[in-house]
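B., you asked whether I could sanity-check this one before it goes into the benchmark set. Here's the sequence:
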Amino acid sequence: MAQTLVSTDYNFPGQEAVYHGKVRDVYTLDGDRLVMIATDRISAFDVILPKGIPYKGQVLNSIAAKFLDATADAVPNWKRAVPDPMVTAGVRCEGFRVEMIIRGYLTGSAWREYASGVREICGVRLPEGMRENERFPEPIITPTTKAEAGHDENISREEIIARGIVSAEDYEVMERYTRTLFEIGTRMAAEKGLILVDTKYEFGKHDGRVMLIDEIHTPDSSRYFYADGYEERFAAGEPQRQLSKEFVRQWLIENGFMGRPGEQVPEMTPEICESISERYIELYERITGEKFVKADDSDPAARIGRNVEAWLTSK
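And here's what the prediction gave me:
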């Protein structure tokens, strides 16, 4: 099995700080530059799972970079370069402590809440009589607060503004950008025979300007259905064929794990890890229309170090 990158410990020239997230490790350089490394870690239910997934970091970084480029004319973003297949470099933004989740269909956690009787999520009223995987009359935005540790929490637009987490002016920009990005992502997915079901975006500020940060339209941040057969499966009440991380969550649920205290992550065999890797690569090829070319995996940590330092010295 390919060698995976599950941790990093670099000391780049000009390095000032490092933040190790659930999946990405973010290095701050010279106050205004970021180097973001997409590792092969995988998380579910806000828990980092014990094994890395081959090529997952490369898949995430490559998809995100392509969508950041494709949407840059409509929404400003932080990306400036891709010095390595697992690395994006760009400008440092002061991130908002909110994730903007936008949903075009009733599925996943929203469906689980709806099925339990909930009819309002994040201040958004949901119609009665909806079924699993049904399309909303129009996409809904259901923000969450970004937790330092543990689970993110649902929050309404009104609470965000009232608590001063984001100003009314900045939130309006974030909301407009969220809808714009979702429209572009939906159109690009449709061109490849996919449905962009739901996704999340993160924003920050640089020089007083609201900008898109982090990843975009990857299988870690988004859910896709295959368009072919959607209507037939929906009419028959059958599960949709999807490309997302939901299959990992379902595997965990089936094996008794939902991130609750006392629960144990089921064994992640090499076969399980390979199958997850194949699903990530499949999404890359479907959404980009390009063949996935695996990077040299003999020593990804050393390769990244060389490539980032070469980029820094060229600036």
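One thing to flag: Residues 58 and 86 are 5 Å apart (CA to CA). Otherwise nothing jumped out at me.
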